[in-house]
Amino acid sequence: MATQDFLVELGTEELPPKALKPLSDAFTRGITKGLEEAGIRFGKVEAFAAPRRLAVRVRNLEDAQPDKPVEKRGPAVKAAFDDSGNPTRALTGFATSLGVTPDQLDTLETDKGAWVIYRTIEQGRPSVELMPELVDQSLAALPIPKRMRWGAHRTEFVRPVHWAIMLFGNKVIESPIMGLTPGNKTRGHRFHCPKSLIVPTPGDYEVVLRQEGYVIADFAERREQIRDGVNTIARHEAGGQAVIDEDLLDEVTALNEWPVPLMGRFEERFLDVPAEALISSMKEHQKYFHVVSADGKMLPLFITVANLESKDPSQVISGNEKVIRPRLADAAFFYDTDRKTRLEDRIEQLKPIVFQDKLGSLYDKSVRVAALARKIAGAIGSNPLLAERAAMLAKTDLVTEMVLEFTDLQGIMGQYYAANDGEHEDVASALNEQYMPRFAGDDLPATLTGCAVAIADRIDSLVGLFGIDQPPSGTRDPFGLRRASLGVLRIIIERELPLDLQTLCEWAEAEHNSMTEANVADTVVDYMLERFRAHYEEQGINAEVYLAVHARRPTRPLDFDRRVKAVEAFRQLPESLALAGANKRVSNILTKQGGDSIGETIDTDLLQDKAEIALAEQIRQQAEKVLPLFEKGDYATALSSLASLREPVDNFFDEVMVMADDEAVRNNRLAMLNLLRNLFLRVADISVLPTAG
């Protein structure tokens, strides 16, 4: 079958920069999925995205879907013909529904009898008919939270659509999309080439736009061109290094069709302001990249990316310098003003600020967190007084001028202001570290004081919100409790802190006086332990491993983690399948025979068979060896040792009847199996693991 390249382009008003890449990716996925579901063969699918356009090109798209055989089963042969062999009403009705006569039908012999069947070849639809439907479906499915209308059109999209291209080879597909009749004309750069440009074939698309239209249509290519240009100008013009935030780079890429990096300067006096404040001002408001020296110190320079080639770049640079100067002057003013008031003098300002209606103000939360942080600090070998002090000051930077203007600087400015006030170094650090980790993979608090405050703040929110029946539901999690739970677990595990979630939640519950729910601590602990599941799945650890440990409900995260790692290592051993199966069998037997009422004491005088004598001895030896390991939390070594029980366990079940007629012998064997199972249960319920059977 012949193939042609296919191109669709949607020309719009400037698209939201943060949405451009997701929209392009979704548009491309939609068309790819549609082609796959339609069964039409195609080659490479290429995405293009620029401020005023979304486009997709499909290489080597076949002219049509392949023809496919179709079978439709009708009535059974017995019901299709009467005693004289004439077609029944069932048969004629089936034939009529298909537009054929009974003599055009075949029969199909099956194990359940013979059936009337209709066989035909369904002709594949031409690509020129199919593609407009796939494009419409893809556009309708784009992740656009709020669509808009424009002019007299009833069409809706994220921004007004002004032109469209739909080409199959050199042929225009004129089926309307977005209320427009597609053609073969695109538009160039708004200023450098404000006119229509003909795209002869899909393969010419980006070439025409680049050479005639001053548009680099490929998002990834434009992104790397900006990166290279920004790095080059920083290196050559300043001898420094540009700091490129990947999210900012994506946003700048989405703002420019013909990017031209330019370097500007600001007054050195602004370097007295914390670098984070300067960066926030340049990045959030102006989309500038900042520049640092070889030793990482910020330079009084910025790099902007213009969306055109100016005949006089100095004018563009000068304009940007004029814009950034008042922004930086504001930051300097806020910094100077804020330092005139100590953080401790701002504590009272937290009283009118509501944290949550039923849980009080930020001041109330600070008092609770301070009490909890003090206890946590004592439990982890830190200074309780420093943790309490840090917690009381933790939210005070929220009422500073700087943070009111630049909300992403909360905590960061608190650290600067605390240091300026002469607070202890750990207290100052904790004001920033309370928010760590801010996102998956982020750094953890470096100080124990910071750990205490970070954990206390999150536990207070979890217990408080669950206590007033405001847990996360579905996708709604307005207070970020899922993230808070994972943050607590990460801090405790990676900093190896000897903390128990049950104790933490009970401490926090004692500080609240507005609880409406019962058993809050237990509920929160269960919720947090459930978060472990996703935590380990991300590490590639099988869900059964998590479930095996979760069945024992260990509430110390560090202990939970060690058990999971031990069970994961055990699962890799060749003996694990058989022992998991044996544990499952033992569990079933014990449950049927009384469960918890069965003891662990083995009477050696009642041991009869060679296999049970051998197993009893092996269990005794293993118990002596692994019980001290369990006490130390060395679960991996203990499980590795218990793996040696596979052979005696297999022999026991092959040669010994557990349910002996003699009650004393039977109970003795059950006690031995109970002791065996309880050794494994010191770590996890390994009967949950996959078994050999």
Automatic annotation (TrEMBL):
Enzyme class: ligase
InterPro entries noted in UniProt: DALR_anticod-bd, Gly-tRNA-synth_bsu, Gly-tRNA-synth_heterodimer
Listed EC numbers: 6.1.1.14
PROSITE patterns: AA_TRNA_LIGASE_II_GLYAB
GO biological process: arginyl-tRNA aminoacylation; glycyl-tRNA aminoacylation
Keywords linked to the UniProt accession: Aminoacyl-tRNA synthetase, ATP-binding, Cytoplasm, Ligase, Nucleotide-binding, Protein biosynthesis
The keyword Acyltransferase is annotated on this UniProt entry: no
Gene Ontology MF, one: ATP binding
Annotated Gene Ontology cellular component terms: cytosol
Transmembrane residue ranges: none
Self-association state and partner proteins as the record states: Tetramer of two alpha and two beta subunits.
Protein name, entry field: Glycine--tRNA ligase beta subunit
